[in-house]
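Continuing from yesterday's entry. The apo prediction looked reasonable, so today I'm repeating it with zinc ion included to see how the binding region is handled. Same sequence as before; SMILES copied from the compound registry.
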Amino acid sequence: MKIILDAGHGYNTAGKRTVDGKMREWEFNNATAKYAAEYLNDYKDVEIKFVQDTTGKTDVSLTTRTNIANSWKADVYVSIHANASGNGKWDDANGIETFTYTSKSKEAVALANKVQAALIKATGRKNRGVKTADFHVLRETNMTAILIESGFMSNKEEAELLQITEYRKKVAKAIVEGIADQYNLKRKAVQTFTEKTAIPSIVYEAHIQGTGWQGKKKNGETAGTTGKSLRLEAVTVKLENTEAKLEMQGHVQGIGWTTVRTNGEVIGTIGEGLRLEAIKLKVPGLNVQYRVHVEKDGWTSWKKNGKMAGTTGQKKQIEAIQIKLS
Ligand SMILES: [Zn+2]
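Holo prediction written out below.
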């Protein structure tokens, strides 16, 4: 799904700052939008676009912002702001509120409710509720749109919070939680496993002419040899700390492509004097890259998603292999 993150205003927008002038509203909005984009990147099938000038130099007009969202055909528009009340003096108004357009589309209200609840839970600030307003970005967007007021720049305590990285991250995370809940977003595999604190890794071992199994290598180390003209005859590859599935094939001298092999299976031959000429490797859900060192040619470029590394029909041996997760 396509999500617009809109950090309100620009750095120099008149008025939009804390009472003591220490922070511009744009600074909070933009930083929080960037954190939200990072958290959203942990989910599958999400595309994100900012509509603000992320350098802050210009305050992109509201019409331009909504035009970008409409022409991109976004599914959701999330506008991030900090609030203010009174007339330029510190005052008591405080808390967080989330807005939908006055016509209150069911989906927008549902999203706003989830985001608002997550914000209050995460920050412990006063719940000012979900409200409606005739704001341009809510009215002129063709998609579900909400606008979040994440605390008051005119409240001394909240003005300080709004400047703290941890608070910005909490707000961003809560917004993303609300979106993920509403649209049933699924986390990418790599994140799921990172959360269990075990980091996925890839372990592989090469069987070398005259040497045999050479010993385990991992995460980009070289398995095999270079500059010795020794053929790599077989390889075995294993993923650790992940349930992602490995699919791998090798092209063997005189035999051609092997069938698809998986975690820890041997690809190639042992004791038959046959060179491995190419490999293909794929791990749905993880970003695995690989390259091989081909006789006379040297290292190939990094490949991924089942693209061939090596050669076929050229009678050239693979001599070494590197595989990495990125
Ligand atoms: Zn604002």
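Comparison notes:
- The mean pLDDT is 94.
- Residues 8-9, 16, 25, 81 surround zinc ion (CB under 6 Å).
Will overlay with the apo model tomorrow.
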